[in-house]
Amino acid sequence: MLNLILKDILIQKKSLAYIALYVVIFSIAFQGTGMDTFIVIAVAVTYQMVATACAYEDKAGSDIMWNSMPIKRRNIVLTKYLSVLFYTIISALVYMVFTILINLTAIPISVAPITLPGLAAAFISTILMNDVYFPVYFKFGYMRARVISIILFFVLFIGILSMAQMAQSKQSGTLFKIFNATFGNASGMQIIFAIIVAELIFTLISYALSVKFYNNKEF
Fold this sequence. Notes:
Elements: H1 2-10, H2 17-29, H3 37-60, H4 62-66, H5 73-105, H6 116-140, H7 142-168, H8 174-183, H9 188-215
């Protein structure tokens, strides 16, 4: 299973250079916004790498080859979901290297370090995006799912920016009032646990649908 994940990474090694470009562009673009730049970078990198891996497989007809081998289809699906975690880790490592280089060279770019809440939010955002994307991909294929992935990317991108702006404003808005009314008495750990449980349930449902759609495909 790990070999399948490594395959997804290696077939797009030329695209890995774009990760550094994303880090530079977003770090400069979001200076002074007060939002966690790493979350945006993680979403952008994951979107790029998932889409590129799926595009290569669709072009090469890899599904035919994988299904001619003694590999269970549910494991093929599982590797797609696990690859999202690897892509997020890759984005974190590149961002950390960029942060170190900026600090060493004293370039006038403000780059915030990765925080634990920011890392958690990055994982949640990237997993959520692909929980929606993968069932569509396994049901309809790459070309139709590509439209969904673009929409999801911009929805998450705009959502993260809007959340940051609302968090800075004195009047947080309806969403934050509802959130405070619902979780106002809960501790930070309880809120994190609730989010993780909800995300896990959603991921399991998404995975089950993806396996079902992929099992029904004929190659």
